[in-house]
Write a structure and sequence with these properties.
Blueprint lengths: L8 E5 L11 H6 L1 H14 L3 H7 L2 H4 L2 H19 L14 E4 L3 H8 L5 H18 L5 E7 L3 H12 L6 E8 L2 E7 H11 L6 E4 L12 H12 L10 E2 L6 E2 L2 H11 L4 E2 H12 L3 E4 L5 H9 L4 E4 L3 H8 L4 H12 L1
Parallel strand pairs: 1-2, 1-10, 2-7, 4-9, 10-11
Antiparallel strand pairs: 3-5, 3-6, 4-5, 7-8
């Protein structure tokens, strides 16, 4: 596997589900730019987010209002460290496109210079609060469907909702046969029960606190629209492919509008990845954040590309030096098998 300098690369930024206690600490310990990012987050939010990221507890880190700024901070810290003079291996690393999964779109816009980090922190903190408040706990649910394509998943969701008046809709298009649905818990439960007869290999309820990216998030969208309207946006320095349209935005106004519509609309991740590959010639996708969730998705969506994680400094150094090691090769084979 060759180093990113030999390929057209894209940065991709993860969303909720990638968080874990300890995330970002190795970057902050090794790079002043990363440490300064955590310090800035603590100051902007008025509480020690860095300690929550590094020490937990896991239950508190998993609260949506905490998870969102925490992941934004870790991704931004890693991105800034890549530009730090202390990491000369990353010199000249220039993505031709960026994208972020759900919350990760905020990280992408910060990295692209379209949105200030402090503004993004305040926005995602409030975004988490509004999304949690939009639906009473226990009323909504989400489920992952494995083995059904997008059309079959949408049909299952419609049939599970039926004439009940409940919402059941596609929320995340994460793979050709990997879709997440969201809505009222009763309708989601019916969809899970029906899924096997419809040809799904697996249907699993997700451990989330609200039905994200569904029409039930409309109150959160309205609240965020006001906040986003009052926030300064700039034209991105690098095209950012948005979740809601799976097309690149070139202006700050377009980026703002996409964030508003994203909240109660499906995440079109398959199309977003294919857009970067087909329109920008992307050959390597670098996941800028904790974990490898997007690597797993991307390898299935675009098997002709290379997907790599920058979750740890040492892994990033090896990658940038062109030596990814046997472990990553083994992981790639496992993900695509």
């Amino acid at each position: 596997m060759s180093a990113p300098a030999d390929k057209k690369i894209a940065f991709v930024f993860p969303g909720q589900g990638s968080q874990k206690v300890g995330m970002g600490r190795a970057w902050a310990d090794a790079f002043p730019a990363a440490r300064a990012t955590f310090d800035e987050a603590d100051a902007v939010l008025g509480f020690p987010l860095s300690r929550l990221c590094w020490e937990g507890p896991e239950e508190e880190l998993g609260l949506t209002a905490n998870t969102q700024p925490a992941l934004l901070t870790v991704s931004t810290a890693i991105h800034r460290a890549l530009s730090d003079a202390a990491m000369p291996e990353a010199a000249g690393l220039a993505p031709v496109a960026m994208a972020g999964h759900s919350l990760g779109e905020y990280s992408a816009l910060v990295a692209a210079g379209a949105l200030g980090f402090a503004d993004a922190l305040r926005l995602v903190r409030r975004r988490g609060e509004l999304m949690q408040a939009a639906v009473p706990v226990g009323t909504g649910a989400m489920a992952a469907l494995i083995g059904l394509d997008a059309e079959a998943s949408a049909a299952l969701a419609r049939d599970a909702a039926g004439d009940s008046g409940e919402v059941c809709a596609v929320a995340n298009l994460n793979g050709f046969t990997q879709t997440v649905i969201a809505g009222h818990k009763g309708a989601i439960d019916r969809a899970v029960a029906m899924a096997k007869d419809r040809g799904a290999r697996k249907a699993t309820l997700l451990a989330v606190s609200a039905p994200f990216h569904s029409p039930l998030m409309r109150p959160a969208r309205e609240g965020m629209a006001e906040l986003l309207a009052a926030t300064a946006f700039h034209d991105p320095r690098v095209p950012v492919v948005t979740n809601v349209d799976a097309v690149p935005v070139a202006t700050g106004e377009a980026a703002r509008d996409a964030l508003v519509r994203q909240i109660d609309s499906p995440v079109r991740w398959v199309e977003s990845v294919l857009r970067m590959v087909e329109d920008f010639g992307v050959e390597q996708l670098l996941e800028v954040g904790p974990g490898t969730v997007l690597c797993g998705l991307n390898r299935r969506i675009a098997p002709g590309t290379v997907s790599s994680s920058l979750a740890a400094p040492e892994a990033a150094r090896q990658l940038l030096a062109g030596d990814t090691g046997a472990r990553e090769e083994k992981e790639a084979k496992k993900e695509t098998s």
